Amino acid sequence: MASTASSLQTIAGITELRATLSAARAAGRRIAFVPTMGALHEGHLTLIDTARAAGDLVVMSIFVNPLQFAPGEDYQRYPRVLAEDTLLAEQRGVDVLFTPSREEIYGQTPVVTVHPGNIGKEWEGTARPQHFEGVLTVVAKLFNIVEPAVAVFGQKDLQQVAVVKAMVRDLDFPLEVLVVPIVREADGLAMSSRNRFLAGKERELATMLSKALFKLRGTFAGGERRASALEAVGWRMLERLPGLTPRYLAAVSPATFQRVNIVQPGDAAIGAIRVGDTRLIDNIIF
Q1: How far is CA 43 from the centre of its chain?
Q2: What radius of gyration do the chain's Cα atoms show?
Q3: Residues of the chain where predicted confidence (pLDDT) is lower than 50
Q4: Cα–Cα dist 208/228, whole Å
Q5: Domains of the chain and CATH, by start
Q6: pLDDT computed for residue 236 by the predictor
Q7: Annotated catalytic, 41?
């Protein structure tokens, strides 16, 4: 079902958004929701395409969520380009753009937050304590505000997808979660809002993570099934590269994010690196 609205409506307040969407639901319109932190790129715009195909009214949120950034992370540095994002959203067919302030979402420091459980314990959960708790808390709030029939996320943040799906299941949110494959640059780098921090040699080094993951997938296609052997292939490509620090590389179940010993089709290889001051994540599905 494609969106039929001809122009973008930008709303910053929760009360106004709820009233607008309540009227849309009363008119029988199916709401598809794309939550983002802005700094939009083609990966985000592909999420909009999926939302337009799944619903009658596409809602996108742009909110840089402070709860998911630990002290010392790049909350202040995270790119904020709302005018540019608004133009891109309108061109791609978003009907309602929700742009709340920090005070609108968190009028006071949250007392109740949503814990990700074991799915969010390792990998990004270890590297960024409280990250997924912040993600789930704001996503739960946004789901309650927007009340979508469907929500669309990107595969690049695969562990985030897993914890969101678990929350939707365990807390009985009445919505469907759709996951869109990673959109990549011509050189294989997964599109990310943080890529704009990369230039020159750092930009070239950043592609090593996707190259390592593709090598794992090629080795799997060649018949190797031992996770330890596959991981070793990737580590050899990432180690001892000046300017690049590998953080993790592992074969996991995309549902539980537990490491697997024998890799099966449908399992995932996940990785994280730091290039200069920029931290990047990526994954592939075997």
Answers
A1: 10
A2: 19
A3: 1-6
A4: 19
A5: 9-180 (3.40.50.620), 193-285 (3.30.1300.10)
A6: 97
A7: no
